[in-house]
Amino acid sequence: MKWTRWIASAVLAGTMATGVIAGTSGAATRSHATSATTLTLWENYGTEQNATATRALVKAFEKLHPTIKINVVSEPAANYFSLLQASAISHNGPDLAVMWTGLFTLQYENFLQNLKGMVPAKDLSRVEDLQWTANDFNAANGPFVVPLEVQFYIGFYNKSAFAKAGIKSVPKTWSQLYSACTALKKVGITPLVYGNGGQALGAEFYPWYDASYLMIGAHSVADWKGLYDGSIPWTSSQNVAQLAAWQKLKTAGCTNPDVLTKTNNIQQFENGKAAMLVDGTWDTAQYTKAMGSKVAAFVPPFSTTPIKGVVEFAGDGFSMTSYSQHKSADVQFLDFLTTQQAGSIVNAAGLIPAIKGMSTSNAVNQEMLDFVNKGGYTPYPMLDNVVQGNVVNTGSKVLPSVLADQESPKAALTQMNQTLQQLPAAQRGTKYAG
Predict the structure, then answer these.
(1) Which pLDDT tens digit goes with each residue over 130-168?
(2) Phi, psi (degrees; rounded to nearest 5) at 390
(3) Homologous superfamily of 151-310
């Protein structure tokens, strides 16, 4: 789940492909419907690149299907899901809606249409990460979402800052990261910058990008289920040790002092005053536009041994509401999202297509894909999409205080563990449930 940002999206260069891609697997087909249909699509993207991609996808789809029109409505990010839920009760909501994946999908599945048997199986087979949109995270149960893009929680670093500090290789462990911090401070560069970065949904930074890598450094991807069902308590010694190493970043001077409230951390990174930050692919195009070849991707090295896991996850996409009166037309749009034409449009917006086998023209985004495809990194989901919402909310309150050295790792993790234990048994059992 990305933390939605109200920042200007990159302007699409050139014109979007809107015709059928000749000779391409998964090319769109034109509608032969004769009656006009108008669909409503809700999104919560603000002005970020996903909004640009959404409107371009709609435009291309309407050209292919001239009897179907899609009215795109931008809803406020802060209460988007509350609005969706309220509209579902009265059945006056949208036909199509942006939906986050993982437990968010399962939490709202009561008003989402299962797409099994509706969107052709051969077309769905082209899409990445469908398992994270299905009951118990099993794709065979049928997806509720067609992903828009593949997202990474990831680190970005300034190659010029590293060169100035004499850092010849990207750190892959805690100790290497601390050494890099020492070198960067010697040349007057903030090693790792934190802040709220223009995020719309909170005055403090969002901790779950970092928390994902803290848990990657502690557990295998299979063992993450233990954080959900409680067989690995949040207060485990591995988790406490990871948070203690993370807290040391500030106490050792590796970060800016105002980690919770800094508002210009992105600008500080872009202008070379900070060497690294942890963010997501929805900002890649902004960094490459501002910094050119100086910016590159790295996997946050929150591990005592060389890090070998990376967050690669289809964090959001589009769903059909179960009460939509235009399901045939809805299916045509969702099916269009599985095509390479749609993937090309997503790529042109600076994002990574969720279509298997497709690459991306943004070199930094491609670096991220290569971590898995060529570097042997194990893909992990976004931790905040596979951990119960109540636990995420508690973590969002207490984890920032750990980084700021205002609360001990054990105390924060104890609160998260208590939240987990207070949930109904069905929400912390052997099967994932919303």
Answers:
(1) 999 999 999 999 999 999 999 999 999 999 999 999 999
(2) -65, -40
(3) Periplasmic binding protein-like II (3.40.190.10)
CA–CA gap between residue 40 and residue 51 (Å, rounded): 15
Condensed to tens digits (0 to 9), the pLDDT of residues 36-60 reads 899 999 999 988 889 999 999 999 9
Helix (H, G, I), strand (E, B) or coil at 212: helix
Residue-wise pLDDT for 249-269, tens only, equals: 999 999 999 999 899 999 999
Question: Domain-by-domain residue ranges, the chain?
Answer: 37-148+314-356, 151-310
Residue among 146, 239, 157 nearest 192 (CA): 157
Residue matched to tokens 């037309």: 329
Give the class (CATH, top level) of 37-148+314-356. Answer: alpha beta
pLDDT at 215 over 90: yes
User: How many whole angstroms separate alpha carbon 273 and alpha carbon 260?
Assistant: 18
* Distance, C-alpha 204 to centroid of its chain: 18
Place of tokens 């988790």: 239
pTM, whole model, 2 decimals? 0.88
Distance CA 318, CA 33 (A): 22
Query: What is the C-alpha separation between 9 and 47, in angstroms, rounded?
Result: 6
Residue 369 identity: L
DSSP track, 338-379: TSHHHHHHHHHTTSEE-BTT---SSHHHHHHHHHHHTT-PEE
